[in-house]
Amino acid sequence: MAFARRELLRPPPAGRARRIRLELLDGSKTTVHIAAHDAARTEIRVAVLRGQARLEPWCEQRGVEEALVGGFFVRPEGLPLGEVRTRGVARRHVPFDAPWAGVRACVHVQGGTARIAGRDALPEAPRGDLLQAGPLLVRGGVPVFRRERDAEGFSAGSRQFDSDITAGRHPRAALGLSGERYFAVACDGRSRHDAGLTLEELAALMAALGSDTALNLDGGGSTSLVSGGRLRNRPRKAYDEPEPGGRPVSTALLFVPR
Known about the structure:
It is globular and about 45 Å long. 7% of the residues lie in helices and 38% in strands. Strands 1-2-15-14-16-12-13 form a seven-stranded antiparallel β-sheet, with helices on one face. It has a five-stranded antiparallel β-sheet with strand order 3-21-4-17-18. A hairpin with a 2-residue loop joins β9 and β10. By secondary structure, the chain is mostly beta strands.
């Protein structure tokens, strides 16, 4: 068990957000923000934020109440890093390095149905929306990420990132899917008050919430969860240095009523 008090990990009711203080096995603590959505009444959509934008004001301008940071991006242009499709159309992006581009996990939404899978398990040119990020955290309800395996090459391919995202505790974001719920999750970090999570700890968290599958998304100063129209987490760009409103991001996942 990755947490000292697993009983705290009750997911909120659908349509609600919840904040919990999570105690880790070494005594460190961090704040986790969870928004739950009824899968039968909610559709996930991939959005491209042209020119980049902070997620909360972007949502406010468009009347979006529920959203989560999407995939990675490259600096300084802000182009999405990893494949992005909306309504079946491939959007401008920087591909992941080979061979990792062909296997890194994605969320794919077609006909209102969302799934999380490796890129090699999806059609070459899928219809609907697709966002590639990763690594895959949970499959079949079981945490599957192991840093030492580096199955999707995030450590081996770390040259495309600011650092090796598999190393250490950081602010992180993730999407979890179950038969009945979608879970949008963000954890705080980079402060004396909030340790952040490793990817292994994030995987354990997503499984404990009841996710059948779960996917890591962009993190660090880009970590942004909007629920009820407001930013729930506390982004930080460096240790104990706030990132007011969160870093401008390139893509997002929207949770909209069907």
